[in-house]
Structures are given as structure tokens and as C-alpha cells.
Design goal:
Length: 236
């Protein structure tokens, strides 16, 4: 089972950057895709099924913008998650079938450290909205069936292990992900760089390949301010 996770920096489907990114994603023949800062129609080229969440309001947005989009070859069954989790950041949960086996995918976008937490014009308290999301994430995960295969993927807005930022918020991330294996921690080959776009798993899944995907195209032009992540899984 192959999953690709990428933040495409709000690039609309009509842009050369999005077209290049989606074409590359398609070339890897994924079973699952998680996009953050994307659009409703970002993955139409892949001809599968999507669930999405518009996410919290953080300035002007195009009507089609979605903070999280999850894609599968097979149809999704949408699963409920607590509303506060969606109100604070971006989150969407679904179950799909991969070659006869059920898997749940939680696509998330944890607010960045300067995400607005007050009315326009008022001073932002760093890490407040980020930490509020994590305070809700842990309890939400504990309501789910612990025996069901579950993948969490998206923009965590945090390197793992901690590279900067307050210990307090990093400890909240570790507490929320208790019982999960973060397969994207540390520098990712072949880029040898650390990502903030992570994949974590719980249940009968084991990562057999983890690699970074260049944010630049073949000519060296930047397509996003994030590089992508590809993960292959085997059932165990």
C-alpha cells in the first residue's frame, strides 16, 4: 500500500505548480493521497474518491480551497470526528478499502505556530492554536477503535524529533500520538532533510519505504514550499 503526503501551498489546479505536483503524484501510482493547503479539485486527474475539510478561517480563501484533502482509489466511508478538532485546525477521517482490506485515514493540518487565535487586529499568541488542536487530537484518537488500522497524515507544522519551538507544545504532540509510530521522523532520504509533513500509523501496518519527494521540478523551479513524502506499507 502506497501513500503520498504533500502540502501544495494553496496552488490552484490550473497552475503549473499544481499540475506538475499532481502529475508526479500520479506517476507513483499511490493507493492513498493526503494533500494539505489544496483545493476541492486538486486530485481530479487521479480519478478516484476524495473527502475534504475546508479548515479554520485564516485570511481570504478561494471558494474551492480545502485545508485537507484525502484521496483513495476506492470510495470512502466518512467517519465522525469531534467538531472542536475541525474548528481549530483541519481534519477529515474516512475508511476505505485497499485490495480487500479496510484502512482508516485521518488527514490533518495542525495550525502553524502563528495561526490567528484572536479577532483581526489583535496580537497573536504564538503556539496557542497549535496547542489547542493537540489538546483535542489525543482524546479524539482515543475514541477510535484501537485495533483498526489507522494512518494519520498531513501537515503537523513540527519537525520530529523536536528541532525548534517550545518543549511544551512538542510534549503535547507526543502525548496526542501516544501508541502511534511516526514513520517520517528524522532526515528523509534522498533529500536528507527533516519534514513537517508527517505520517503516523497504528495497528497491523509496517512502513517498508519512506522517502522525500523534491519540491522542485526537473528544471529546478520550486513547485511548493514543502517537499512531499512517500510511504509504502505492508500488512503485518
Amino acid at each position: 500500500m502506497r501513500l503520498i503526503n504533500w502540502n501544495i501551498e494553496r496552488r490552484g489546479p490550473h497552475t503549473w505548480q499544481a499540475a506538475s505536483l499532481v502529475s508526479e503524484i500520479q506517476s507513483f501510482e499511490p493507493d492513498l493521497v493526503v494533500l494539505t493547503e489544496a483545493h476541492t479539485h486538486s486530485l481530479n486527474l487521479l480519478d478516484g474518491h476524495t473527502l475534504s475539510h475546508r479548515g479554520y478561517d485564516h485570511g481570504p480563501k478561494a471558494a474551492s480551497e480545502q485545508l485537507v484533502v484525502i484521496w483513495s482509489k476506492a470510495p470512502w466511508t466518512s467517519l465522525a470526528i469531534p467538531q472542536p478538532l475541525q474548528d481549530i485546525g483541519g481534519a477529515v477521517l474516512g475508511e476505505t478499502d485497499i485490495r480487500g482490506r479496510k484502512v482508516q485515514v485521518l488527514g490533518i493540518c495542525i495550525p502553524w505556530h502563528m495561526a490567528p487565535d484572536a479577532p483581526p487586529g489583535e496580537k497573536v499568541k504564538p503556539w496557542k492554536r497549535h496547542e489547542e488542536f493537540l489538546d483535542h487530537l489525543g482524546p479524539a484518537l482515543r475514541t477510535l477503535n484501537p485495533d483498526a488500522p489507522l494512518i494519520i497524515a498531513g501537515d503537523f507544522n513540527r519537525r520530529i524529533p523536536r528541532a525548534w519551538g517550545p518543549y511544551r507544545s512538542y510534549e503535547k504532540l507526543e502525548a496526542a500520538l501516544d501508541g502511534f509510530v511516526v514513520v517520517t521522523e528524522g532526515p528523509l532520504a534522498p533529500l536528507e532533510d527533516m519534514t513537517i509533513d508527517h505520517v503516523a500509523t497504528r495497528g497491523p501496518l509496517s512502513a517498508t519505504l519512506v522517502r522525500g519527494l523534491d519540491r522542485h521540478d526537473a528544471s529546478g523551479k520550486a513547485r511548493s514550499d514543502h517537499f512531499g513524502v512517500l510511504v509504502d506499507f505492508d500488512w503485518v
